[in-house]
Amino acid sequence: MRKEYIHKDVLEPFIAMYEAAEKDGVRLGIISAFRSFDTQKWLWNQRYYNSSNPISVASSVLKYLAMPGTSRHHWGTEVDLMSTKLYYYETDDGKYSYQWLIDNAADFGFYQVYNAGRKTGYNEEKWHWSYMPIAKEFLLQYEEKITYEDIVGFNGCETAQELKIIEDYVLGIDSLLLE
Q: Taking residues 11-38, what's their average pLDDT?
């Protein structure tokens, strides 16, 4: 069994949410949480391939995976829950569990940052939930400190600025969470 890590201040609220969900028959198993730059780089490089059209390749990978150095998973405030398979959310269990999160996660500080209806960024991720009390501060720090010169060291990194990774992906979250 693989160990997952989250920010120490996210643990208690997550456990409280997990226990409340369990009482309602929902099992919020963590599929993925903290990812180091190197782990994100490995995931990215597994999907990115050399092509005469690197923008097209990067755009394809970016549907559901962040470039290293731009992933919210680097912060330890993000959890991927239950399943990252789209078909799961079409099952009765998936629908029930997702609706439970919609109805209750905010009570514990968790929000779906990659929801439906956004104009930029990743596809909707029903599994990706962010602990907003800390993630919001980390996002502000990211905006202040990270530039395109920092997004390097992996295949296709030269596409980051043209694809507006910071503006459209890092900041391409639910607008409610940008206030």
A: 97
Question: Is residue 173 assigned to a domain?
Answer: yes
Q: Distance between CA atoms of 167 and 112, rounded to whole angstroms?
A: 19
**DSSP label at residue 87:** G
Distances (CA, A) of 66 to 47, 107, 113, 134, 159: 11, 27, 13, 20, 13
Domain contains 1: no
pLDDT > 80? residue 121: yes
* DSSP 8-state class, residue 9: H
In a domain, 3, yes or no: no
Q: For residues 27 and 33, what is the distance between their CA atoms, to the nearest angstrom?
A: 16
Q: How far is CA 169 from the centre of its chain?
A: 10
Report the run of H or E that residue 31 belongs to, with start and end. Answer: strand 30-32
Q: How many domains does the chain have?
A: 1
Does pLDDT of 120 surpass 90?
A: yes
Round to whole Å and give the CA distance between 84 and 21. Answer: 18
Q: Is 118 among the domain residues?
A: yes
Query: Which range of residues forms the domain containing residue 13?
Result: 8-178
In this structure, is the dihedral angle defined by the CA atoms of residues 139, 11, 84 and 133, taken in order, positive or negative? negative
User: What is the Cα–Cα distance from 101 to 80, expressed in whole angstroms?
Assistant: 12
CATH at 126: 3.30.1380.10
Share of the chain above pLDDT 70, in %: 99
